[in-house]
Each structure stands twice: as C-alpha cells, then as structure tokens.
Amino acid sequence: VAGTRGLLCLLSDRIDREVLDAAGPGLKVISTMSVGFDHLALDEIKKRGIRVGYTPDVLTDATAELSVALLLSACRRLPEAAEQVKSGGWTTWKPLWMCGFGLSDSTVGIIGLGRIGQAVARRLRPFGVKKFLYTGSGPKPESAAEFGAEFVPLTRLAEESDFVVVTCALTPATQGMCNKDFFSRMKKTSVFVNTSRGAVVNQEDLYNALSQGQIAAAGLDVTTPEPLPTDHPLLSLKNCVILPHIGSATYATRSTMAVLAANNLLAGLRGEPMPHELKL
C-alpha cells in the first residue's frame, strides 16, 4: 500500500494505524465494500483527513432475506430435520417429533431498527406477528409507525420477545450487549438471531444459554472470530444454526456493492462527492 492515494478494502481487511502509516501521507481515500465500518480505525482516519466511502442500502434486502431465512431455520429446526432424513432418524410420523416454534401471534424484538431492521420487520409482518418491539440509541417514531413497533429498553425487549433479531451496528455501546444477563431474561421458548456483527454477542454466554435450555435456539450469520474454528463449542449444539457471514451473498447484491465501492473510490480520487461517503 506504500505511496497509494486510494485504498479499496473488504470488511475482512483491518485498516489500522499500521496500514495507514505504511500507505503514507498521500492516502486520500478509503473505499470499503461493506455497510459496516468497525474494521476501520476511524479516529486515526479522521485525524489524517482521509475520506471514506462505504456501501449502505444496496445490501439491505439481501441481508433482511437472510435474517428471515436464519430465523425460520432456527425456530423450525430445519438443519436438524434435514440431518435426520440423511441419518435415518426419520422413521414414522410422531406427534411431537421435530416440533419448533412459529411466528404467528408472536412478539418480535428488533435490536437496531435501521434500514436492515425495518426490512426484516417488513418481511416478518405477513407471517402474522402480533407485536414488534425495538430498541436502539433512541426512539424512531417515523420508522416504527409502519409496524406499530414500540420502543422499549433492552431488558424489556429480552423479557417479552418470542424472537430477538439483532441488526444494529457494532459500537462501543453495543459490544458484548447480548450477554448472560440478557439471555437470562429471555423466555425458554425464545429464539435469538444475529446478522449484525459477532462482537455484539458474548458467545460463551450464548453457548451456556443454549446448552442449559435458557433459550430455545439461535441463528448466527456472524461470529467472533470469522471464520469460527471448527472445534468451537457453539458448533456442537443442535439448537444453534451458524452460517458463514453470507447476509449479502446474492450475485446481484455483491455486484452492486463492488460497483458502488469502485465509484466511491474514483469519485474520492477526483475530489468529487462520493455516491456514499461516511461522515466522519
């Protein structure tokens, strides 16, 4: 990166002081092919007057679809059921075999009612969800009105939700937010889904909650670290569905993200307004 004026990176690239020092004072623009930016040392970047482009909006629908798919996979035990077919566990029809939990008449709690959180709620509503709760840095009455969603403290959301979906950004305030106290407040029949960032969750606490029956199931598209080691305790649990961070993984979305990231970079290098610039 030495001597570069512009840098195009992925969410898996850590752009820290060492990288910035290596690039030198000529670095003017960083464009990340992601909506998240917790991999960027923003304080250091701001200090050096470097502009940052990112790719919000374009992956909202794909990530919301994946969030719903993950929720359904976890609550209806789809991977477990598919494995039973392959292993010969499917014998005859039994009244309570492979039973899970349905969305009809349920309460869904969304942590972070931003673009993706709203898109998730929009897709879940036709399943017959009775009530939406949400929490975050503050109330969003205009966004919440579409779903009749109620702004509540995190503790109440944990206590009252049948399904918890995490779609917030990773910040110092949200890091490790879903921990032992949070899971202990959730219903034993509730399902937890995280498609935001792995570090929002204390994974040891989640493992204990799942293995001890404090909550019914979990679905994760994000973990700490990524990739998750194959011997990680969470992977030993039947009631935990883990995907390899594929929230935005549709051909159309990834193509759009790549073009937007390139356009952000080129506009920044020309000294023009970027299609999507992060305000530092």
Describe this structure in words.
With 280 residues, the chain is of the alpha/beta class. It has two domains: 78 residues, 3-Layer(aba) Sandwich (Rossmann fold); 184 residues, 3-Layer(aba) Sandwich (Rossmann fold), CATH 3.40.50. Helix content is 34%, strand content 14%. The protein contains ten helices and ten strands. The strands form two sheets. A seven-stranded parallel sheet has the order 6-5-4-7-8-9-10, sandwiched between helices. α8 links the parallel β7 and β8. This is Glyoxylate reductase/hydroxypyruvate reductase. Keywords: Oxidoreductase.
Describe what is shown at a glance:
With 280 residues, the chain is α/β, with parallel strands linked by helices.
Secondary-structure map:
Elements: E1 6-9, H1 17-23, E2 29-32, H2 42-47, E3 51-53, H3 60-75, H4 78-87, E4 107-111, H5 115-124, E5 131-135, H6 141-145, E6 150-151, H7 154-160, E7 163-166, H8 180-185, E8 191-194, H9 203-211, E9 217-220, E10 240-242, H10 251-269
Parallel strand pairs: 1-2, 2-3, 4-5, 4-7, 5-6, 7-8, 8-9, 9-10
